[in-house]
Specification:
Number of helices: 6
Number of strands: 14
Number of domains: 2
Order of helices and strands: EHEHHHEEEHEEEHEEEEEE
Strand content: 15-25%
Strand order of the largest sheet: 3-2-1-6-8-7-4-5
Structural class: alpha/beta
């Protein structure tokens, strides 16, 4: 998986420090979410330091000046830590694939914008050449790159045409918020919103399921002895839930019993949707 920061989504769209600070907080939150998901084999790419000097953030002020002008200096440090350190972003110019002699244009409604020699051109070329890699573009919020994605909620679709050839239109997935990233990860990588990787070879932890919601469930202080999993009581219905420890990945689920603990109700997804057709009369009482 390759993630590209779209530097040209900085267009001086922030009228004051307040709006820019909101943008920086969202940007930091996106990368904290990426880090928390512990996505394997992912690489983040950025443009070189032109990101800081060639693009406006607060109107009339380049990004570096806008960032340094934020009164909350911890935000400045958090941002620089993301760009330079913690997530080890690379400058894509070191591995450049697209050529300056080709033209790459962003198609937006009835207009186009030349994006050659930018991160958008580079990721478009990579996606065009490699169908086996997953690509994602991260925009700074409130940019022109906001064409609604036809399949993924809160995301955008970024259409790039190469050399004005309509057979070479590359559609890139883009996000500019944490909810958009959550939706994209769930759709593209099967990473559930509750943090469990559906390609995992281990059963989910309780904290990776709906059972972590203490407004809906309470731990009963009991253990399902055959599996060693904690038993939870659903506050609203009184039903008992525990994670099935024998299944993982796409087959992972939660077992649900009625308030007596003697009758199997069915199986629930990790998000809490109960499938009563999976009720199994042969499943033993959990002896509540």
């Amino acid at each position: 998986m390759e993630i590209f920061i779209n530097e040209i989504s900085l267009q001086g769209q922030y009228p004051s420090e307040k709006e820019f600070v909101d943008c920086v907080k969202i940007f930091i939150g996106i990368f904290e979410l990426i880090e928390s998901k512990k996505i394997q084999n992912r690489q983040i790419y950025k443009q070189n330091n032109l990101l800081f000097v060639n693009y406006e953030a607060i109107k009339g002020s380049n990004f570096n000046a806008s960032l340094r002008g934020i009164r909350d200096k911890s935000l400045y440090q958090q941002f620089r830590n993301i760009i330079f350190n913690r997530q080890n972003p690379k400058e894509w110019q070191q591995e450049r694939l697209h050529s300056s002699s080709d033209s790459f244009d962003y198609l937006h409604e009835s207009t186009s914008k030349n994006v050659t020699d930018t991160s958008l051109a580079e990721v478009a070329e990579r996606q065009y050449l490699s169908k086996d890699t997953i690509y994602l573009v991260i925009n700074f919020k409130d940019s022109i790159f906001n064409c609604e994605h036809p399949h993924i909620k809160d995301c955008c679709i970024i259409s790039i045409i190469k050399n004005n050839d309509e057979t070479k239109i590359i559609h890139l997935d883009g996000i500019d918020s944490q909810p958009a990233l959550e939706n994209w990860l769930e759709e593209k990588l099967s990473l559930s919103r509750i943090g469990y990787d559906l390609s995992s070879k281990d059963p989910p932890l309780d904290m990776q399921t709906i059972l972590i919601d203490n407004k809906k469930f309470e731990y009963t202080q009991r253990i399902h002895k055959p599996s060693g999993r904690k038993i939870y009581r659903e506050i609203l219905t009184g039903r008992y839930w525990y994670v099935d420890n024998l299944h993982f990945g796409q087959k992972s689920h939660i077992e649900v019993f009625d308030p007596t603990g003697k009758h199997h109700v069915g199986e629930a997804t990790l998000k809490g949707d109960v499938d009563r057709t999976k009720a199994d009369p042969d499943k033993k009482s959990i002896d509540i």
